[in-house]
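Incident review: delayed structure delivery

Summary: a single-chain prediction request sat in the queue longer than the usual turnaround. Root cause was a stuck worker, restarted by the on-call engineer. No data loss occurred. The affected request and its eventual output are reproduced below so the record is complete for anyone auditing the incident later.

Affected input:
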Amino acid sequence: MGMQGSRGAVVRRGGLSRRVLMIAHAFPPTGGPGVQRSARFAKYLPDFGWTPTVWCAPASTDLPRDEALLDELPKHLDRRVHEFVEPRGRGIARFNHWRFQRLNDALRYWSCPDRLIAWAKSSLPELLNIVRTENIDGIYSTHSPASNHWLAWQLKSATGVPWVADFRDLWTDNYDFAPPTVWHRRRMRRMEDAFLRAADAVVGVSVEQTDILAGHVSDQRDKFATIYNGADESDFVGVHRNVVRSQRGIDENRFIVSFVGSFVRTAEAPAIVDGLTDFQKRIGGDVSTEFRIVGWVPDDMRRRVLNANIQICATGYVSHADAIREMVASNCLISGNLTTGRNCDSVVPAKIFEYQLAGRPIIHVGSVSSAVARVLDDCGSGVTVSPNRVEIADAVAAVYNDWCNDRNPGGVNRDRLRKYTRKSQTGQLTGILNRLTSGREERRKFGRCDEASSPMTVGA
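Output delivered after worker restart:
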């Protein structure tokens, strides 16, 4: 076990700086969509008078690596990397016997809330020391994994420092929640309820998800708030459509429809392929159109796409910066929930907001009553169609006709989109932190900071 990192200087604004401990197991240089939210909070917190100390793990071998994300963070960010190798893991590696491997698998199987709980438990002593000796004013943790919240819960219980529990994904109410046993299900549900009661503020990423979370502790509804996922305007600075298309060898006369993200098989994905096939037939097999999938494509969908009568380019996983460039280079951006199960319509992925900042027409395939549809309607930036090949073909054809006639098909309402930018959302988070820590700074300044003081709650 060990710790490494950069301990940056604390910038003092107006006297005494406020500090927040951010617990995020996955953090740059780990890539993928799951790190964007906490990374952008860390980027912009200093602009609002808060200095973050990030507690994270080394880059995961299970997730993509994106070194460029580190370059976008403040140069002196206090990022502390906690490395942990389970003692039993070292012993098993030494003995390399199938019985030990089975024991290790069994121990992981019964881990709760997840397999990263050992990392969280090994972090606790050092973090208790940090919170007690380094003037930490607030604690922020992000789910998933749930072990981030477990760690923050322990710190809150031991120190009384106000805690914001951020759910960028639902937990026991999520569409993919599938615990291995009934015991796991009950234990995780009790643990989630304990987290929700203990946190001083709970944040969801859509109104629908916030309501679901608040339903667990309906007597504490006033401490729940919604901060959507979003897009960072700085990602689009200097990214120009013509330049990107030239760099990628995309002819200016080619009509590009792009899907950014994992193209997995659900009701929406085959419908998107079928709709694009029908659209291709309508324009007489014009080879100047192309469907670009920017992300992972499983084998079953790869076969489905290759058998379709459309021009295809599947890039595989690309860095976040390259994903942004692909969006800008497109003529039409298409999305789908691409998830099945309960509460899937409550999900609003961050790429929806990036789609909007890219300024391209958006077609969302899914329920017209979904959270995504409501966001698109709010910003006037796209249309939502059901997973029906005819509707999808009609929607793509409408964008194509506008493009052929040099018409601007509309665009996002920039004023309404501003509240969905990462910097604006960080302002919302700091508003919560400010209310929770009101008075704590003055007490600390004069040496009267009571660790066990009762934190305030925050309205939605």
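Verification: The chain has a mean pLDDT of 85.
Action items: add queue-age alerting; document worker restart procedure.
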